[in-house]
Amino acid sequence: MQKDEKKAYREWRRTFVTLWLGCFMTGLGFSMTMPFLSLYIATLGHFSHWELNVYSGIAFAVTFLAQAIVSPYWGNLADRKGRKLMCLRASLVMTFTIFLTGLANSVWMIIALRLIQGAFSGYVNNATAFMAGETEHGRSGSVMANMMTASVTGNLIGPLIGGTLADLFGFRIPFFITGVMMGMVFLLTLFNTQEHFKANTAKVLKPMKEIFANLKNTNMIITMFCTTLMVQAALMSVAPIISLLVKDLMGNQGNVSFVSGVVAAMPGFGTLLIASRLGHQMDKTGPIKVLLAGLAFAGIIFIPMFFVTSPWPLAALRFLFGLANAAMLPAVQTILTISVPREAFGRIFSYNQSFQAAGGVIGPLLGSVVSGILGYQSVFLITACMLLFNFYLVFRIRKVSTE
C-alpha cells in the first residue's frame, strides 16, 4: 500500500512540476513579446500616432475578447475529454500562432493571428483546473497559490529577456523563441503528465443548469466570477498609464524606461514573496478570509497612490499591492475548487477565465478613459473604489451564506 502511495505521489509531483513549468514558460513567452508588440507593429508600416495606438489596442484586446467568447465551449469539452487535452490544444496552437506572428508582414496578419491565439489559448487556466482535479481539497490553497507563482515569475523575467533580444536581434526573434518554447510545453505536457480522468459523453455530462441548481451556494460562485473580473480589471486598469505616469513624475528626465519597468514589475515581486505562505494559510483558515483580507488591503493601498509625487513611493506601494494580489485570484480559484463537483471543473474554470478575459478588456479601457478625463492618478482612486466595493460584495455573500 505504501508503495502504491509513493508511486501515486511521484506521478502527482511530476505532473505538478511539469504544469508549473508549462505555466512559467507561457507567462515568460507572453511577457517577452507583448510589451513590444506596438513597437513591432510600428515597423510594419508608416502609421500616424493615432493609427498606431488604435492598431496596438485592437491587437491587444482581440485576444481577450476571443477568450471571453470561446472559453465556455472549451470548458464543456474539458469536462468531457479531460483538461490535459485542453492544455495540449492550447500549447500546440500557440506554438504556431506566436511563431507565425514573428513572420508577419502586415498589422492585419498580427491581429488575425492574435484572434486565433485567443480563441485557442488557455494553457494556464486549464493547467490550474488540471491540478485542481488531481489535488485533494485539504491542499488546494497551497497548490493554487504555487500555480500562480509560475506565470507571475515568467511575467517578471520575460520583459528583461524580450527587451535584450529585441535590442540585439530585432522584434521578431522573441516571437520565434516563444513559439519554440510553446512547442516544448506541448511535448512536456504530452509525455510528462498523468491525468486520472474518466471521459464523459455529452449525454452523461450533467448540464450546468442542473449543477448550479444542486450547489449549496450558487451566489458565492457567481460572486467569485465577478471578483475575478474586478480583480483583473484592477490589475489591468493601470497598465496603459504606468509608463506615462512615471514619465510625468520624473519630469521626463532620466532613464524613464528602466524606472517604468521597475515600477511595473514590483507587484510581481510582492506576489512571489508571499504566495506560498498565503496558500498554506488558506488551507488552515479557509480561502474566504484570505480573499477578504486581500481585497481590503488592495483597496486601501491604491488610495495613497493618488498622492505620490515620485516613482519610488509608487514602486513601494505597488510592491505592497503585489502582497494583496497573492491573496485574491488564488483564493477565488480555491473557493471554486472546493465548492463545485470535480466533473464541472473544466466548465467552471472556463467561465472564470471568460470573466478574467473580460476584466482584461475592461481594465485598460477604464484606465485609458479615466486618465484621459481626470488625469493619470485618478485611475488609482477609481480602482480603489472598485476593489472596496468588491470587498463589500464578498463580505455580504459570506454573511448571508453563514446565516
From TrEMBL:
Signal peptide (UniProt feature, chain positions): none
Q: Which domain of life is it from?
A: Bacteria
- Compartmental location: Cell membrane
Sorted alphabetically, which keywords does the UniProt record give? Cell membrane, Membrane, Transmembrane, Transmembrane helix, Transport
Q: Name one GO molecular function term.
A: transmembrane transporter activity
Boundaries of every Major facilitator superfamily (MFS) profile domain copy: 15-402
What parts of the sequence cross the membrane? 20-42, 54-74, 86-111, 169-191, 221-246, 258-278, 290-309, 373-395
Q: How does it sit in the membrane?
A: Multi-pass membrane protein
Q: Indicate yes or no for the key word Transport.
A: yes
Q: Which GO terms describe its cellular component?
A: plasma membrane
InterPro entries attached here? MFS, MFS_dom, MFS_trans_sf, Tet-R_TetA/multi-R_MdtG-like
Q: Name one Pfam family in it.
A: MFS_1
Family annotation (PANTHER family): MULTIDRUG RESISTANCE PROTEIN MDTG
Per its record, how is this protein called by name?
Major facilitator superfamily (MFS) profile domain-containing protein
